[in-house]
Amino acid sequence: MQVGFIGSGVMGSPMAGQLIAGGHEVHLYRVKARHDDLLDRGGKRCDSAAQVAERSEIVILMLPDTDDVESVLFGEEGIADHPAPSKLVIDMSSISPVATKQFAERPAAKGVGYVDAPVSGGEVGAKAGTLSIMAGGSEADFARALPLFEKMGKNITRVGGVGDGQTAKVANQIIVGLTIEAIAEALTFAKAAGAEPAKVREALMGGFASSRILEVHGDRMVKRTFDPGFRIRLHRKDLSSAIDAARQLDLSLPNTAATQQLMNGAVAIGPGDRDHSALIQMIEHLSAIKHDA
Amino acid sequence: MQVGFIGSGVMGSPMAGQLIAGGHEVHLYRVKARHDDLLDRGGKRCDSAAQVAERSEIVILMLPDTDDVESVLFGEEGIADHPAPSKLVIDMSSISPVATKQFAERPAAKGVGYVDAPVSGGEVGAKAGTLSIMAGGSEADFARALPLFEKMGKNITRVGGVGDGQTAKVANQIIVGLTIEAIAEALTFAKAAGAEPAKVREALMGGFASSRILEVHGDRMVKRTFDPGFRIRLHRKDLSSAIDAARQLDLSLPNTAATQQLMNGAVAIGPGDRDHSALIQMIEHLSAIKHDA
Fold it and tell me: Number of Cβ pairs closer than 8 Å across A and B?
């Protein structure tokens, strides 16, 4: 199939690579220089988003934020107003669910389908083709997108209609961020009270406090290994999206807001480009607790 | 062995029952009327804490709060100043780790060992003898307590010295409370944004957001089944202990404090005696979201 892929960065490049390896003719736009190897492997470079749309039946977007998606869809040389053959837009970026519902309207009016399908699993999952994909869209559009999703991911869920994939991703980032913060408070408490955080973490695994975050990020906090992983700066962006959407929905999310503020502080004091488990350094900073590592 | 057990309520009663079933002679004080069957099954009633201490080699406490433990240890007819044969006090109540370290000093000066060993797993775990036990104390005292712990629990960890068991329990309650709050915010966001919370929860299981809390309490939130379980009112008590201890330690725990405040609100608006998963009703209340159930 002729597939368009706009946005080949850290995540998009291995995802587009999976599609090329899967036998698709992939038309690329916005390929970062260090991912030029996609062209050697058979990817076709285009000069504009519009050109991608001209040459592709389905166009996938994997872009940094809501504004980027809006400009590729509706800007000059954008794909939304472009004539066929593109019949389906799949936005795999992580952006606002509220904006996504608006974005889908104009293509829909012209008979072009729209599926939002943000992912989790990071660069590792993208390279292995094992991303979790949370999709929103009509059943028919989802069915058309599914064979492409299956090249890129493993846990693929249609959450509901357009926007619901982004909603699930925001919910995911809220839970992950606030659980990391919770474990950071708990382990800092343990240390301040004179216990060994490693022992406390062990005692808590297997009970109701157990989670993937306690397993993975709790271990990083104990061992003080904060190489990303997923950077605090990026998680902060996701919680800011949650807070923006909450404002649009007249919704009060107190701990999401507080945690986003703590991430602002974390960027200010240093570990913004460390793994999000380094949020514990901000909790320590609040009480002037010093560490060697 | 002659074992004392002070505090036979919802948790203490089945725990003492396990010791009786395990062949120990159990001397009881503070048996609630509805748990009188312990006496029919071989438990011996005493008239004071001091009498329990006179008759027992090891005395176990399972009491509601820090003040109760203090009064049984050091009040009139208390056990701490009482002559042998009691050589070990095991406090299985969930109380302040800071107070625990002070409480252990006076018995220690008289050669009486002290182990703090709060539990998690609730009434179900107590009845099944499968509690998680988080213990603090010397290796020798822990070794003496272990055969009794093995009658009552399954995951038994010596976290460290005296007080470290209570510290682990507080850390546990912080993580559990804040994770419940996080999932409540995430599922409320999902609903407000127009997605189905049940579908969002499903999409998130298996990824980094997955936890025992998302599995169990997330399901209760989706199905609106809030029978306790563990009551918000009791979890609020535990977070208040965390906040008290944090003040004594000059430690700042912003989301623990905020979540304790939300639990105050939950008690005010209604669901204080529902399962702690009903904290979602407070998150909904903040934005005037109404539910049928």
Answer: 263
pLDDT at A122: 87
CATH assignment of the domain containing B53: 3.40.50.720
Q: How far is B130 from chain A (nearest CA, A)?
A: 11
CA torsion through residues B93, B96, B99, B101, sign:
positive
Has residue B162 got a pLDDT over 60? yes
| A185/B178 Cβ within 8 A | yes
Please give the tally of structural domains in chain A. Answer: 2
Residue B31's φ and ψ, nearest 5 degrees, are: -95, 120
Interchain CB distance below 8 Å, A212 and B211: yes
Instruction: Report yes or no on A276 lying in a domain.
Output: yes
Determine the Cα–Cα distance for residues A57 and B278; give it in Å rounded to an integer.
Answer: 47
B113 shares a domain with B54 = yes
Contact present, B193 and A163 (Cβ < 8 Å): yes
Catalytic site includes residue B169: yes
A222 and A132 both lie in a single domain: no
B258 is in which domain, residue-wise? 167-286
The pLDDT mean for chain B works out to 94
CA distances from A227 to A213, A223, A271, A272, B82 (A): 16, 11, 10, 11, 55
Q: What is the mean pLDDT of chain A?
A: 94
Let me know: does A282 contact A291? Beta carbons within 8 Å.
no
Q: Tens digits of per-residue pLDDT, B2-59? A: 999 999 988 999 999 999 999 999 999 988 888 889 999 999 999 999 999 999 999 9
pLDDT band for position A85 (cuts 50, 70, 90): low
Contact (CB<8Å) A185/B174: yes
Which residue on chain B is closest to A199 by alpha carbon?
Answer: B159
A185 to chain B: closest CA residue = B253
A134 and A190 in a single domain? The answer is no
Task: Check which CATH number belongs to the domain holding B204 and give it.
Answer: 1.10.1040.10
Q: Which of B168, B179, B252 sits opposite A182 (nearest CB)?
A: B179
